Amino acid sequence: MRLVIISDMHGGYSFSIPKGDVLIFAGDITRYGSRKEVKYFCDYMKYLPHTYKIVVAGNHDRCFQRHWDRIPEFFDYSAGFTYLEDDQFTTVDGIKFYGSPWQPEFQDWSFNLPRGEALKQKWDMIPEDINVLITHGPPAGILDQSRGISVGCSDLYDAVRRIKPRYHIFGHIHSAHGVSCPYGDTTFINASLCDERNKVARVPIVVDYGIPVFR
Fold first, then answer.
1. 104: in domain
2. What are 99-152's pLDDT values in tens digits?
3. Which residue segment(s) compose the domain that 120 sits in?
4. 30 found inside a domain
5. What pTM was computed for the model?
6. d(CA 153, CA 73)
7. 3-state class of 23 per DSSP?
8. CA-CA-CA-CA torsion for 47, 49, 55, 60, nearest 10 degrees?
9. In total, how many domains does the chain have?
């Protein structure tokens, strides 16, 4: 199974999308979080040949939080879209995908929660048997450096080390784009496409499930 992984496109479309089976978006698909931007995104992506398109929101995707009850209107589910937010997972060929948009609070963005118990409660919802975890924000200490400072969530790190998914996919911290496998059991992927000026400067990360990624 080939995974094509994207995060933090911020409304930019100046990149090519490789072919694959599952197209994954780890948040910040928009710049301003408007419904108009989401409609454009869906209209553009629904014609891509990937059988499955899994979407998790990010802190810029305000309309997902403001209009939570209208999310089904955003996506043409017949085109393979699945939106994940906390209380559900999707299974593709026996592989379980789970997604959550939350991150430690920063300014007045969406899906912000205080560090500590509030975020821990979200991570405690992650099923123990998940294979691919998709969050918008990174775990503490792994591909989370912003201007030399680790800004990831320590409770998310603890949850990932307990559950040990095959992949943990995220974005949010543009400067920390890359792949890391420090423990040998979970491959961590920061798939941010944009640089720190919110300009698309990278390409999607492609992973063949179960095959080591070298970058």
1. yes
2. 999 999 988 889 999 999 999 999 999 999 999 999 999 999 999 999 899 999
3. 2-208
4. yes
5. 0.95
6. 31
7. strand
8. -50
9. 1
